[in-house]
Amino acid sequence: MILPAIRSMKDLEKFIQTNYDYCVILDLHISQLEHILNMLKLNGKSAFFHVDLIKGLAIDEAAVEYLIQKFKVYGIVTTKTKLIKKAKLLGAQTILRTFIIDSSALKKSYRFIEACEPDYVEVLPGIATKVIKEMSGHTERKIVAGGLIETIEEAEIALANGASHITTSNQKLWEHYNPINKN
């Protein structure tokens, strides 16, 4: 339900203490990659890496191949369909991040979803429940609500409208939804 969004090492340390199995790593410098992956592995956790936000790594298919083959990352997040396609070919989980600012962007996102068939589609902003509801009715992909969800009520509304997950860096929401038992 919640995918904790990690923006710093402090966030990662907090995430490690939760019962969540998965997170999304944002705002990463390439020099931190191996350390972060080791921390995750030692604690039985996995992560989606937002490849568009890894500083020092080109945003191209070779970068995705490098992350998946060398570091065995669980999954990637990106706005680029060609990177989703490459990651899927290599067996990684994928999240296509979409920014829905108007009806034209919504129509374009449907074309992108059909073109690359991601495992998940992240809708930003996550408070756009009308879009979440429409998109969940239009595609079989799981919908992730991301961005601007700050309260339990906003999270519940997104979930009630078709979101399967919520990405958030809000640790109060992590705590509220923290799974009681690890699987």
Automatic annotation (TrEMBL):
Coiled-coil regions listed: none
Taxonomic superkingdom: Bacteria
SUPFAM superfamilies linked to this entry: GlpP-like
Biological process terms in GO annotation: glycerol metabolic process; positive regulation of DNA-templated transcription
Gene3D superfamilies reported for this sequence: Aldolase class I
GO molecular function: RNA binding; transcription antitermination factor activity, RNA binding
Pfam families, alphabetized: G3P_antiterm (PF04309)
Sorted UniProt keywords: Glycerol metabolism, RNA-binding, Transcription, Transcription regulation
Known role: Regulates expression of the glpD operon. In the presence of glycerol 3-phosphate (G3P) causes antitermination of transcription of glpD at the inverted repeat of the leader region to enhance its transcription. Binds and stabilizes glpD leader mRNA.
Protein known as: Glycerol uptake operon antiterminator regulatory protein
Native species: Macrococcus epidermidis
